[in-house]
Amino acid sequence: MRVAVAGTCGLALLIAQQIQDSTSHQVLVLSRFNQPNLTSQGYQCQVIDYGSSSSLRHALMGVDTVISTVTGSAQLRLIDAAVQCRVRRFAPAEFEGRPGLQTPNSILDRKKSAARTLLRSHASYMQSTAFVCGIFYERFAVGGLRAHQIGARIASGEGDYIADLRNMTAVAPIYDSADALSSLCLTSMHDVAKFVVKSLDMANWPSEMSLCGERMTVHSLITLIGTCRGRPLNPVEWQNPSGLQYQLSITSNPTQQQRIATHLATAEGRYDFATPAYLNSMYPDVVVMSLHHWLTHTWAAVP
Ligand SMILES: NC(=O)c1ccc[n+]([C@@H]2O[C@H](COP(=O)([O-])OP(=O)(O)OC[C@H]3O[C@@H](n4cnc5c(N)ncnc54)[C@H](OP(=O)(O)O)[C@@H]3O)[C@@H](O)[C@H]2O)c1
């Protein structure tokens, strides 16, 4: 089976690597640029122009499944081309919270709702699924998400989400709108890639597939970070949805808006879902990494 992975962000490359290393499927990496590094590692790559439907159609010829990490109008064009090329299945760039809880056209949307609507309209020709994994562990990486070649167009620096593990400060959306403790699910990108690749062998894809490394309250997350770093976060600014909505209304800085909107989404439970998650139950042989292990290992060399 020929599987196209669109984009060369850290997640796309982990998925491509897993397909290449652990399956007999053929993987094709779609990128706007030549990728000599990937080609030299044996990957088949195709340069594409998202502005040209013939370029997209040419790239998707003979492709069974597309895994997209590309957002915005580029992804909408990729979906159109996939339908024209009779691609069987398409996984859009989701890999975060439950789609039903996302706000269309919000600062976090990046035309993902438009992509879902388009995919729904083509459901009789092409299956699609949203991989729902919650927050990537890598948001807490040394150097932030950006150090993992992901999130170039969002607030993705070190300390941009909840906790600054270098300076041990935190801004934590711990309460939901009912003043109860908010919860979230988190997964390492490596485990996301493992589940995505497992799902390639499923005969049919449901419209959503959840997978999870760990589920916890934001309050427990703050405690866990302190344990892994050997000292507590201090100070911690506790946040709730109404405070966050107010902050959002008075901020004009786009990076700040994204940070606040992501905290608001967390407080509202957008990254929370029932566990054991769907793919964890389907593939109990996939052993996920704990956040405790990941954080301790990742920050071991940083005092
Ligand atoms: N759960 C989480 O915590 C979390 C956090 C961040 C992201 N995500 C998810 O991860 C996926 C990737 O996110 P991302 O923020 O890295 O997406 P992105 O900035 O849109 O980049 C993804 C890929 O899109 C391609 N691309 C196509 N047109 C582009 C353009 N005009 N500008 C920049 N890149 C373009 C790039 O590949 P080429 O340059 O090779 O063409 C790039 O590797 C999404 O599904 C997102 O929802 C999840």
UniProtKB/TrEMBL annotation:
Gene3D superfamilies attached to this UniProt entry: NAD(P)-binding Rossmann-like Domain, UDP-galactose 4-epimerase, domain 1
Keywords annotated in UniProt: NADP, Oxidoreductase
NmrA-like domain: residues covered: 37-232
Key word NADP present: yes
Naturally occurring in which organism (per UniProt): Didymella heteroderae
Pfam families linked: NmrA
GO molecular function annotation: oxidoreductase activity
Name of the featured protein: NmrA-like domain-containing protein
Lineage: Eukaryota, Fungi, Dikarya, Ascomycota, Pezizomycotina
